[in-house]
Amino acid sequence: MHSFDPPYAHNDVKPGNVLLTHRKGQPPLAILMDFGSARPARRQIRSRSEALQLQEWAAEHVSAPFRAPELWDCPSQCDIDERTDIWSLGCTLYAIMYGVSPFEYALGESGGSLQLAIVNAQIKWPTGPKPPYPEGLHQFVTWMLQPQATVRPRIDDIVIHVDKLISKFSH
């Protein structure tokens, strides 16, 4: 969808919308489902009214723990693109690894705010003597969770990096 012209964003990438299949003798395959929130990815926001409309739309159609910062607090002058899905993908990978989105901890804190944790990209990684995943995987997820959309990778960058991670850890 990101390679369409114009590109489309799924807008609700989350673990519940990913189906994992497995065929005997083949690696698992992840299939993205539920395209009810999909729409053209690139939008130019040029007024406070447009920004508020986008935030209202996101509140209805994008699951809060996986919603990109720019969909929580949209500037009056900005360009929104398909990298909102990259943010959601990073949250989804974290959730697959640890069973919860990287920002839901804020809901359990006194005075905590999911929105503030997301907008400020305050990721809390589980701690312990022996991390269950390689540091390279944590860095990969952190790369996708850049609070500034312009710094976030695009899907082509993600595919290249995944190929590198697979070859590095499959030996």
From TrEMBL:
InterPro entries recorded: Kinase-like_dom_sf (IPR011009), Prot_kinase_dom (IPR000719), Ser/Thr-specific_kinases (IPR052239), Ser/Thr_kinase_AS (IPR008271)
**Domain named Protein kinase: which ranges?**
1-171
Q: Which PROSITE patterns match?
A: PROTEIN_KINASE_DOM, PROTEIN_KINASE_ST
Regions that span the bilayer:
none
Q: Which GO terms describe its molecular function?
A: ATP binding; protein serine/threonine kinase activity
* A single GO cellular-component term on record: cytoplasm
* Recorded superkingdom: Eukaryota
- One Pfam family assigned to this protein is Pkinase
Q: Which residues form the signal peptide?
A: none
Q: What is this protein called?
A: Protein kinase domain-containing protein
**What's the source species for this entry?**
Solanum commersonii (Commerson's wild potato)
